[in-house]
Amino acid sequence: MEPSCFRKKPSAQARISECRPASASRIIGTSYTGLNTAWQFKRDNPNARVVVLEAAVVGFGASGRNAGFSTRMFGLEPEMVLLRWGKQKMIEAHRYLEKAVAHTRSLIEENGLDCDYRHNGLVRMSYSEQQANRLKKSYQLFQELGLDGDMRWREKSQVQQDFHSERFNSGIYESGTAYLNPYKQVHALKRLPESAGVTIYETTPVTNIERTASAIGLTTPQGKVTADKLVVATNAYSRQVPDTRALKTRQFPLWTYQIVTEPLSDRQWQNIGWKDRQSFGDNRQMLPYFRPTVDGRILMGGGDAIVYRTPPMDEVPSPMSWQHCEAHLKWIYPQLKDVRIAYRWGGPVSVNVDMVPEISFVGDERIIYSGGCFGHGVALTHLNGRTIADLLNGEKTELTDFWIMNRKSIPMAGDTFFFLGGRVARQALKTRDWWEERNLKGM
Ligand SMILES: Cc1cc2nc3c(=O)[nH]c(=O)nc-3n(C[C@H](O)[C@H](O)[C@H](O)COP(=O)(O)OP(=O)(O)OC[C@H]3O[C@@H](n4cnc5c(N)ncnc54)[C@H](O)[C@@H]3O)c2cc1C
Protein backbone atom coordinates (compact mmCIF):
# COMPACT_ATOMS: atom_id res chain seq x y z
CA MET A 1 0.00 0.00 0.00
CA GLU A 2 1.15 3.58 -0.70
CA PRO A 3 2.21 5.57 2.37
CA SER A 4 -0.45 8.17 3.16
CA CYS A 5 1.74 11.01 1.96
CA PHE A 6 1.55 9.63 -1.61
CA ARG A 7 -2.14 8.77 -1.66
CA LYS A 8 -3.17 12.23 -2.74
CA LYS A 9 -3.84 12.74 -6.44
CA PRO A 10 -0.68 14.34 -7.76
CA SER A 11 -0.96 17.81 -9.20
CA ALA A 12 1.29 20.81 -9.74
CA GLN A 13 0.40 21.91 -6.22
CA ALA A 14 0.71 18.49 -4.61
CA ARG A 15 2.71 18.67 -1.44
CA ILE A 16 5.02 15.78 -0.67
CA SER A 17 5.33 15.61 3.08
CA GLU A 18 8.33 14.03 4.74
CA CYS A 19 7.93 10.29 5.12
CA ARG A 20 10.28 7.38 5.51
CA PRO A 21 8.84 4.28 3.90
CA ALA A 22 10.70 1.09 4.72
CA SER A 23 11.29 0.17 1.11
CA ALA A 24 10.69 2.62 -1.68
CA SER A 25 12.11 3.39 -5.10
CA ARG A 26 12.16 6.82 -6.63
CA ILE A 27 12.67 7.54 -10.27
CA ILE A 28 13.63 10.98 -11.55
CA GLY A 29 12.26 11.80 -15.00
CA THR A 30 8.95 10.85 -16.63
CA SER A 31 10.48 9.73 -19.84
CA TYR A 32 10.74 6.47 -21.74
CA THR A 33 13.44 5.32 -19.32
CA GLY A 34 11.63 6.53 -16.21
CA LEU A 35 8.16 5.26 -17.12
CA ASN A 36 9.35 1.90 -18.43
CA THR A 37 11.53 1.30 -15.38
CA ALA A 38 8.73 2.25 -13.00
CA TRP A 39 6.26 -0.05 -14.72
CA GLN A 40 8.56 -3.05 -15.02
CA PHE A 41 9.80 -2.76 -11.43
CA LYS A 42 6.29 -2.33 -10.03
CA ARG A 43 5.08 -5.38 -11.96
CA ASP A 44 7.90 -7.42 -10.49
CA ASN A 45 7.25 -6.03 -7.01
CA PRO A 46 3.54 -5.25 -6.63
CA ASN A 47 4.00 -4.28 -2.97
CA ALA A 48 6.86 -1.87 -3.60
CA ARG A 49 6.23 1.85 -3.41
CA VAL A 50 7.37 3.40 -6.66
CA VAL A 51 7.22 7.14 -7.23
CA VAL A 52 8.29 9.10 -10.29
CA LEU A 53 9.33 12.74 -9.85
CA GLU A 54 9.32 14.93 -12.95
CA ALA A 55 10.72 18.46 -13.05
CA ALA A 56 8.38 19.57 -15.85
CA VAL A 57 5.57 17.46 -17.35
CA VAL A 58 5.37 13.93 -18.71
CA GLY A 59 7.41 13.66 -21.90
CA PHE A 60 9.01 17.08 -21.54
CA GLY A 61 12.44 15.67 -22.43
CA ALA A 62 13.59 14.04 -25.65
CA SER A 63 11.01 11.27 -25.20
CA GLY A 64 8.16 13.63 -26.06
CA ARG A 65 9.79 15.45 -28.97
CA ASN A 66 12.05 13.06 -30.87
CA ALA A 67 11.68 11.90 -34.47
CA GLY A 68 10.15 8.58 -33.46
CA PHE A 69 12.53 6.15 -35.21
CA SER A 70 12.49 2.84 -33.35
CA THR A 71 15.87 1.81 -34.60
CA ARG A 72 18.81 -0.51 -33.95
CA MET A 73 21.31 2.27 -34.60
CA PHE A 74 24.01 2.45 -31.98
CA GLY A 75 26.79 5.01 -31.71
CA LEU A 76 27.68 7.41 -34.48
CA GLU A 77 28.70 5.13 -37.34
CA PRO A 78 29.19 1.34 -37.50
CA GLU A 79 32.87 1.83 -38.39
CA MET A 80 33.43 4.05 -35.33
CA VAL A 81 31.80 1.49 -33.03
CA LEU A 82 33.99 -1.21 -34.55
CA LEU A 83 37.13 0.88 -34.16
CA ARG A 84 36.44 1.87 -30.55
CA TRP A 85 34.79 -1.32 -29.23
CA GLY A 86 35.70 -4.18 -31.56
CA LYS A 87 33.64 -6.79 -33.41
CA GLN A 88 32.23 -8.73 -30.49
CA LYS A 89 30.83 -5.68 -28.71
CA MET A 90 29.44 -4.35 -31.96
CA ILE A 91 27.57 -7.62 -32.54
CA GLU A 92 26.28 -7.64 -28.95
CA ALA A 93 25.08 -4.05 -29.29
CA HIS A 94 23.24 -4.89 -32.51
CA ARG A 95 21.55 -7.88 -30.85
CA TYR A 96 20.51 -5.80 -27.81
CA LEU A 97 19.02 -3.18 -30.12
CA GLU A 98 17.23 -5.86 -32.16
CA LYS A 99 15.63 -7.01 -28.93
CA ALA A 100 14.85 -3.39 -28.08
CA VAL A 101 12.92 -2.81 -31.32
CA ALA A 102 11.01 -6.10 -30.89
CA HIS A 103 10.31 -5.32 -27.22
CA THR A 104 9.00 -1.83 -28.06
CA ARG A 105 6.75 -3.25 -30.74
CA SER A 106 5.24 -5.93 -28.52
CA LEU A 107 4.83 -3.47 -25.64
CA ILE A 108 2.83 -1.19 -27.93
CA GLU A 109 0.80 -3.94 -29.57
CA GLU A 110 0.06 -5.98 -26.45
CA ASN A 111 -1.00 -2.94 -24.43
CA GLY A 112 -2.81 -1.20 -27.26
CA LEU A 113 -0.72 1.97 -26.95
CA ASP A 114 -2.06 4.52 -29.41
CA CYS A 115 1.08 6.04 -30.94
CA ASP A 116 0.75 5.67 -34.75
CA TYR A 117 3.32 2.84 -34.76
CA ARG A 118 4.35 1.76 -38.26
CA HIS A 119 6.87 -1.01 -38.84
CA ASN A 120 7.69 0.16 -42.36
CA GLY A 121 11.49 -0.18 -42.45
CA LEU A 122 14.27 2.30 -43.08
CA VAL A 123 16.48 3.19 -46.02
CA ARG A 124 20.04 4.39 -45.46
CA MET A 125 20.68 6.66 -48.44
CA SER A 126 23.70 8.22 -50.04
CA TYR A 127 23.90 11.19 -52.42
CA SER A 128 27.44 11.24 -53.81
CA GLU A 129 29.76 8.48 -55.09
CA GLN A 130 31.99 8.91 -52.02
CA GLN A 131 29.03 8.47 -49.70
CA ALA A 132 27.83 5.46 -51.71
CA ASN A 133 31.28 3.85 -51.37
CA ARG A 134 31.27 4.47 -47.65
CA LEU A 135 27.76 3.03 -47.36
CA LYS A 136 28.82 -0.03 -49.35
CA LYS A 137 31.63 -0.59 -46.87
CA SER A 138 29.17 -0.37 -43.98
CA TYR A 139 26.97 -2.92 -45.75
CA GLN A 140 29.92 -5.25 -46.26
CA LEU A 141 30.79 -4.87 -42.58
CA PHE A 142 27.22 -5.81 -41.56
CA GLN A 143 27.46 -8.84 -43.90
CA GLU A 144 30.82 -9.89 -42.53
CA LEU A 145 29.49 -9.74 -38.95
CA GLY A 146 26.25 -11.51 -39.85
CA LEU A 147 24.14 -8.47 -38.97
CA ASP A 148 22.59 -8.00 -42.40
CA GLY A 149 19.60 -10.35 -41.86
CA ASP A 150 16.97 -7.80 -42.83
CA MET A 151 19.17 -5.65 -45.11
CA ARG A 152 19.26 -5.43 -48.90
CA TRP A 153 21.55 -3.35 -51.08
CA ARG A 154 19.75 -1.15 -53.62
CA GLU A 155 21.47 0.40 -56.61
CA LYS A 156 21.07 4.06 -57.50
CA SER A 157 18.51 3.36 -60.24
CA GLN A 158 16.32 1.32 -57.86
CA VAL A 159 16.46 3.97 -55.13
CA GLN A 160 15.65 6.75 -57.59
CA GLN A 161 12.75 4.74 -58.97
CA ASP A 162 11.30 4.20 -55.49
CA PHE A 163 11.83 7.72 -54.20
CA HIS A 164 11.49 9.83 -57.38
CA SER A 165 14.54 11.96 -56.66
CA GLU A 166 17.60 12.23 -58.83
CA ARG A 167 19.59 13.30 -55.76
CA PHE A 168 19.82 9.78 -54.42
CA ASN A 169 22.64 7.38 -55.01
CA SER A 170 22.57 3.77 -53.76
CA GLY A 171 21.19 2.71 -50.38
CA ILE A 172 20.63 -0.03 -47.84
CA TYR A 173 17.01 -1.09 -47.32
CA GLU A 174 16.33 -2.62 -43.92
CA SER A 175 13.00 -3.90 -42.69
CA GLY A 176 13.79 -4.03 -38.96
CA THR A 177 13.08 -0.37 -38.18
CA ALA A 178 9.81 1.31 -37.25
CA TYR A 179 8.55 4.77 -36.41
CA LEU A 180 6.00 6.16 -33.99
CA ASN A 181 4.60 9.44 -32.72
CA PRO A 182 6.83 10.11 -29.69
CA TYR A 183 4.44 12.46 -27.90
CA LYS A 184 1.53 10.03 -28.21
CA GLN A 185 3.79 7.19 -27.14
CA VAL A 186 5.03 8.79 -23.93
CA HIS A 187 1.48 9.71 -22.91
CA ALA A 188 0.10 6.28 -23.75
CA LEU A 189 3.00 4.68 -21.89
CA LYS A 190 2.26 6.74 -18.76
CA ARG A 191 -0.96 4.74 -18.31
CA LEU A 192 0.97 1.52 -17.66
CA PRO A 193 2.86 2.47 -14.48
CA GLU A 194 -0.11 4.50 -13.24
CA SER A 195 -2.51 1.59 -13.60
CA ALA A 196 -0.02 -0.64 -11.78
CA GLY A 197 -0.03 1.76 -8.81
CA VAL A 198 2.98 3.97 -9.48
CA THR A 199 2.52 7.62 -8.49
CA ILE A 200 3.78 10.30 -10.83
CA TYR A 201 4.44 13.83 -9.59
CA GLU A 202 4.85 16.40 -12.36
CA THR A 203 6.37 19.87 -11.88
CA THR A 204 8.37 18.36 -9.03
CA PRO A 205 12.08 18.90 -9.69
CA VAL A 206 14.53 17.15 -7.44
CA THR A 207 16.67 19.95 -6.05
CA ASN A 208 18.88 18.01 -3.68
CA ILE A 209 20.00 14.42 -3.23
CA GLU A 210 21.47 13.37 0.08
CA ARG A 211 22.88 9.93 0.61
CA THR A 212 23.28 8.40 4.07
CA ALA A 213 24.04 4.83 5.05
CA SER A 214 20.36 4.07 5.64
CA ALA A 215 18.53 6.04 2.92
CA ILE A 216 18.66 8.43 0.00
CA GLY A 217 16.95 11.73 0.75
CA LEU A 218 15.45 13.77 -2.09
CA THR A 219 14.40 17.38 -1.77
CA THR A 220 11.77 18.95 -4.02
CA PRO A 221 10.00 22.33 -3.72
CA GLN A 222 6.91 20.42 -2.55
CA GLY A 223 8.64 18.48 0.20
CA LYS A 224 11.18 15.80 1.03
CA VAL A 225 11.08 12.07 0.41
CA THR A 226 13.42 9.22 1.13
CA ALA A 227 14.13 6.13 -0.87
CA ASP A 228 16.18 3.00 -0.61
CA LYS A 229 16.87 3.04 -4.35
CA LEU A 230 16.97 5.79 -6.92
CA VAL A 231 17.01 5.81 -10.71
CA VAL A 232 18.27 9.01 -12.33
CA ALA A 233 16.51 8.75 -15.70
CA THR A 234 17.43 12.24 -16.83
CA ASN A 235 19.59 11.51 -19.90
CA ALA A 236 20.54 14.85 -21.54
CA TYR A 237 19.35 16.75 -18.43
CA SER A 238 21.72 14.94 -16.10
CA ARG A 239 24.04 17.91 -15.57
CA GLN A 240 21.13 19.62 -13.82
CA VAL A 241 20.68 16.83 -11.30
CA PRO A 242 21.98 18.16 -7.99
CA ASP A 243 24.57 16.51 -5.81
CA THR A 244 25.52 13.78 -8.18
CA ARG A 245 28.88 15.32 -9.05
CA ALA A 246 29.81 12.00 -10.60
CA LEU A 247 27.22 12.74 -13.33
CA LYS A 248 28.46 16.20 -14.20
CA THR A 249 31.27 14.91 -16.37
CA ARG A 250 29.43 11.91 -17.83
CA GLN A 251 27.60 13.54 -20.73
CA PHE A 252 26.67 16.80 -22.38
CA PRO A 253 23.47 17.92 -24.17
CA LEU A 254 23.68 18.38 -27.91
CA TRP A 255 20.72 20.24 -29.44
CA THR A 256 19.13 19.00 -32.62
CA TYR A 257 16.18 20.44 -34.56
CA GLN A 258 13.23 19.21 -36.59
CA ILE A 259 10.54 20.43 -38.97
CA VAL A 260 7.22 19.01 -40.14
CA THR A 261 5.51 19.99 -43.38
CA GLU A 262 1.87 20.70 -43.88
CA PRO A 263 -0.02 17.58 -45.10
CA LEU A 264 0.92 16.70 -48.68
CA SER A 265 -1.87 16.17 -51.20
CA ASP A 266 -2.30 12.75 -52.85
CA ARG A 267 -0.83 14.24 -56.00
CA GLN A 268 2.27 15.49 -54.16
CA TRP A 269 2.78 12.03 -52.66
CA GLN A 270 2.46 10.48 -56.12
CA ASN A 271 5.08 12.91 -57.41
CA ILE A 272 7.64 11.82 -54.87
CA GLY A 273 7.02 8.06 -54.97
CA TRP A 274 7.94 6.78 -51.53
CA LYS A 275 4.94 4.47 -51.70
CA ASP A 276 6.05 2.08 -48.96
CA ARG A 277 6.25 5.03 -46.58
CA GLN A 278 9.51 3.88 -44.98
CA SER A 279 11.65 6.26 -43.02
CA PHE A 280 15.01 7.21 -44.46
CA GLY A 281 18.24 8.75 -43.30
CA ASP A 282 21.33 9.58 -45.26
CA ASN A 283 24.89 8.77 -44.36
CA ARG A 284 26.04 12.36 -44.01
CA GLN A 285 28.04 12.89 -40.85
CA MET A 286 25.35 15.25 -39.55
CA LEU A 287 22.67 12.56 -39.82
CA PRO A 288 19.60 14.09 -41.48
CA TYR A 289 16.53 11.84 -41.23
CA PHE A 290 13.07 11.85 -42.81
CA ARG A 291 9.81 10.02 -42.26
CA PRO A 292 6.16 10.32 -43.19
CA THR A 293 3.53 10.95 -40.53
CA VAL A 294 0.23 9.11 -40.53
CA ASP A 295 -1.59 12.28 -41.55
CA GLY A 296 0.47 12.66 -44.71
CA ARG A 297 3.19 15.10 -43.69
CA ILE A 298 6.97 14.73 -43.85
CA LEU A 299 8.99 15.06 -40.68
CA MET A 300 12.63 15.92 -41.16
CA GLY A 301 15.37 16.57 -38.65
CA GLY A 302 19.08 16.53 -37.96
CA GLY A 303 21.53 17.89 -40.49
CA ASP A 304 23.11 20.01 -37.79
CA ALA A 305 23.61 19.82 -34.05
CA ILE A 306 24.58 22.58 -31.65
CA VAL A 307 26.49 22.61 -28.39
CA TYR A 308 25.52 25.62 -26.28
CA ARG A 309 27.64 27.22 -23.65
CA THR A 310 26.17 27.09 -20.14
CA PRO A 311 23.37 26.98 -19.20
CA PRO A 312 23.08 24.31 -21.87
CA MET A 313 19.48 23.29 -21.09
CA ASP A 314 17.88 26.63 -22.00
CA GLU A 315 15.46 26.20 -24.88
CA VAL A 316 17.14 27.97 -27.80
CA PRO A 317 15.30 28.33 -31.13
CA SER A 318 17.53 27.74 -34.13
CA PRO A 319 16.11 29.37 -37.28
CA MET A 320 19.34 28.43 -39.09
CA SER A 321 18.86 24.72 -38.38
CA TRP A 322 15.19 24.84 -39.42
CA GLN A 323 16.10 26.67 -42.60
CA HIS A 324 18.78 24.09 -43.30
CA CYS A 325 16.25 21.25 -42.85
CA GLU A 326 13.73 22.89 -45.18
CA ALA A 327 16.35 23.64 -47.84
CA HIS A 328 17.67 20.09 -47.68
CA LEU A 329 14.20 18.54 -48.02
CA LYS A 330 13.47 20.75 -51.01
CA TRP A 331 16.88 20.02 -52.54
CA ILE A 332 15.95 16.33 -52.51
CA TYR A 333 12.42 17.03 -53.67
CA PRO A 334 12.13 20.17 -55.84
CA GLN A 335 8.60 18.85 -56.46
CA LEU A 336 7.81 20.11 -52.93
CA LYS A 337 9.20 23.62 -53.33
CA ASP A 338 5.86 25.24 -52.46
CA VAL A 339 5.09 23.04 -49.48
CA ARG A 340 4.89 24.99 -46.25
CA ILE A 341 6.55 24.05 -42.99
CA ALA A 342 3.88 23.71 -40.31
CA TYR A 343 5.96 23.02 -37.17
CA ARG A 344 9.51 23.57 -35.99
CA TRP A 345 11.09 22.48 -32.71
CA GLY A 346 14.22 21.02 -31.14
CA GLY A 347 15.52 19.08 -28.20
CA PRO A 348 18.66 17.84 -26.48
CA VAL A 349 20.30 14.47 -27.03
CA SER A 350 22.78 13.16 -24.50
CA VAL A 351 26.29 12.76 -25.86
CA ASN A 352 29.36 11.40 -24.15
CA VAL A 353 32.95 11.18 -25.30
CA ASP A 354 32.77 7.65 -26.65
CA MET A 355 29.33 8.14 -28.20
CA VAL A 356 27.63 5.05 -26.78
CA PRO A 357 25.03 4.87 -24.00
CA GLU A 358 25.64 3.81 -20.43
CA ILE A 359 23.68 2.57 -17.46
CA SER A 360 25.79 2.95 -14.34
CA PHE A 361 25.72 2.77 -10.59
CA VAL A 362 26.58 6.10 -9.02
CA GLY A 363 28.68 5.74 -5.90
CA ASP A 364 27.08 2.49 -4.80
CA GLU A 365 24.40 0.20 -6.17
CA ARG A 366 21.51 2.21 -4.69
CA ILE A 367 21.61 4.89 -7.39
CA ILE A 368 21.39 3.98 -11.08
CA TYR A 369 21.94 6.51 -13.84
CA SER A 370 21.01 6.16 -17.52
CA GLY A 371 22.33 8.48 -20.23
CA GLY A 372 24.39 8.95 -23.35
CA CYS A 373 21.65 7.61 -25.65
CA PHE A 374 22.72 10.00 -28.40
CA GLY A 375 19.97 10.31 -31.06
CA HIS A 376 19.13 6.60 -30.89
CA GLY A 377 17.27 6.19 -27.63
CA VAL A 378 13.66 5.38 -28.54
CA ALA A 379 13.78 1.57 -28.68
CA LEU A 380 16.87 1.45 -26.47
CA THR A 381 15.25 3.23 -23.50
CA HIS A 382 12.13 1.05 -23.69
CA LEU A 383 14.26 -2.06 -23.22
CA ASN A 384 16.54 -0.28 -20.74
CA GLY A 385 13.49 0.08 -18.49
CA ARG A 386 13.37 -3.73 -18.24
CA THR A 387 17.13 -3.92 -17.75
CA ILE A 388 17.18 -1.30 -14.99
CA ALA A 389 14.31 -3.12 -13.25
CA ASP A 390 16.52 -6.24 -13.24
CA LEU A 391 19.33 -4.20 -11.70
CA LEU A 392 16.96 -2.79 -9.06
CA ASN A 393 15.87 -6.35 -8.30
CA GLY A 394 19.53 -7.28 -7.84
CA GLU A 395 19.19 -9.89 -10.58
CA LYS A 396 21.85 -10.84 -13.07
CA THR A 397 20.12 -11.46 -16.39
CA GLU A 398 20.99 -11.65 -20.06
CA LEU A 399 20.05 -7.95 -20.29
CA THR A 400 22.20 -6.83 -17.37
CA ASP A 401 25.14 -8.63 -19.00
CA PHE A 402 25.10 -6.16 -21.91
CA TRP A 403 28.41 -4.32 -21.83
CA ILE A 404 27.00 -0.78 -21.51
CA MET A 405 26.14 -1.68 -17.88
CA ASN A 406 28.41 0.05 -15.42
CA ARG A 407 31.10 0.70 -17.99
CA LYS A 408 33.56 3.44 -17.24
CA SER A 409 32.72 6.19 -19.72
CA ILE A 410 35.51 8.63 -20.49
CA PRO A 411 34.91 11.76 -18.36
CA MET A 412 34.39 15.12 -20.05
CA ALA A 413 37.17 17.59 -19.41
CA GLY A 414 35.07 20.59 -18.31
CA ASP A 415 32.40 22.78 -19.92
CA THR A 416 34.66 25.08 -21.89
CA PHE A 417 36.68 22.22 -23.29
CA PHE A 418 33.52 20.37 -24.32
CA PHE A 419 31.97 23.52 -25.81
CA LEU A 420 35.06 24.26 -27.90
CA GLY A 421 35.68 20.59 -28.73
CA GLY A 422 32.03 20.23 -29.76
CA ARG A 423 32.26 23.23 -32.08
CA VAL A 424 35.46 21.91 -33.67
CA ALA A 425 34.00 18.39 -34.10
CA ARG A 426 30.82 19.84 -35.65
CA GLN A 427 32.83 21.88 -38.12
CA ALA A 428 35.00 18.87 -39.00
CA LEU A 429 31.94 16.69 -39.65
CA LYS A 430 30.28 19.40 -41.74
CA THR A 431 33.48 19.83 -43.75
CA ARG A 432 33.58 16.12 -44.47
CA ASP A 433 29.96 16.26 -45.71
CA TRP A 434 30.83 19.24 -47.91
CA TRP A 435 33.88 17.45 -49.31
CA GLU A 436 31.92 14.30 -50.13
CA GLU A 437 29.19 16.35 -51.84
CA ARG A 438 31.31 19.02 -53.52
CA ASN A 439 30.48 17.77 -57.02
CA LEU A 440 26.73 17.54 -56.49
CA LYS A 441 24.42 19.99 -58.21
CA GLY A 442 22.81 22.70 -56.07
CA MET A 443 24.75 21.99 -52.86
C1 LIG B 1 15.07 16.18 -31.62
C2 LIG B 1 15.36 14.76 -31.21
C3 LIG B 1 15.13 13.72 -32.11
C4 LIG B 1 15.41 12.40 -31.74
N1 LIG B 1 15.07 11.40 -32.60
C5 LIG B 1 15.25 10.10 -32.21
C6 LIG B 1 14.81 9.04 -33.05
O1 LIG B 1 14.20 9.24 -34.09
N2 LIG B 1 15.08 7.77 -32.66
C7 LIG B 1 15.73 7.50 -31.49
O2 LIG B 1 15.95 6.31 -31.21
N3 LIG B 1 16.09 8.49 -30.65
C8 LIG B 1 15.86 9.77 -30.97
N4 LIG B 1 16.20 10.79 -30.11
C9 LIG B 1 16.77 10.43 -28.81
C10 LIG B 1 15.70 9.92 -27.84
O3 LIG B 1 14.56 10.73 -27.92
C11 LIG B 1 16.26 9.89 -26.42
O4 LIG B 1 17.43 9.11 -26.40
C12 LIG B 1 15.28 9.32 -25.41
O5 LIG B 1 14.00 9.85 -25.55
C13 LIG B 1 15.81 9.58 -24.02
O6 LIG B 1 14.83 9.21 -23.10
P1 LIG B 1 15.09 9.29 -21.58
O7 LIG B 1 13.91 8.65 -20.98
O8 LIG B 1 16.38 8.65 -21.20
O9 LIG B 1 15.25 10.86 -21.23
P2 LIG B 1 14.29 12.21 -21.53
O10 LIG B 1 13.18 11.80 -22.40
O11 LIG B 1 15.20 13.25 -21.96
O12 LIG B 1 13.72 12.52 -20.11
C14 LIG B 1 14.44 13.06 -19.04
C15 LIG B 1 13.43 13.69 -18.07
O13 LIG B 1 14.06 14.02 -16.83
C16 LIG B 1 13.44 15.18 -16.31
N5 LIG B 1 14.33 15.81 -15.33
C17 LIG B 1 15.53 16.38 -15.55
N6 LIG B 1 16.06 16.85 -14.39
C18 LIG B 1 15.17 16.56 -13.40
C19 LIG B 1 15.14 16.77 -11.99
N7 LIG B 1 16.13 17.40 -11.33
N8 LIG B 1 14.06 16.33 -11.29
C20 LIG B 1 13.05 15.69 -11.91
N9 LIG B 1 13.03 15.45 -13.26
C21 LIG B 1 14.07 15.88 -13.99
C22 LIG B 1 13.24 16.05 -17.58
O14 LIG B 1 12.29 17.06 -17.37
C23 LIG B 1 12.81 14.99 -18.60
O15 LIG B 1 11.41 14.86 -18.68
C24 LIG B 1 15.94 12.12 -30.45
C25 LIG B 1 16.17 13.17 -29.55
C26 LIG B 1 15.87 14.48 -29.92
C27 LIG B 1 16.10 15.58 -28.92
TrEMBL record:
Any one GO molecular-function label of the UniProt entry: oxidoreductase activity
Domain of life the protein comes from: Bacteria
Pfam families xrefs: DAO (PF01266)
Keyword Oxidoreductase included in the entry's annotation: yes
Gene3D superfamilies, sorted: D-Amino Acid Oxidase, subunit A, domain 2, FAD/NAD(P)-binding domain
Coiled coil: none
InterPro entries cross-referenced by the UniProt entry: FAD-dep_OxRdtase, FAD/NAD-bd_sf
Every FAD dependent oxidoreductase domain range: 27-391
Keywords assigned by UniProt, alphabetized: Oxidoreductase
Annotated GO CC locations: cytoplasm
Protein name: Glycine/D-amino acid oxidase
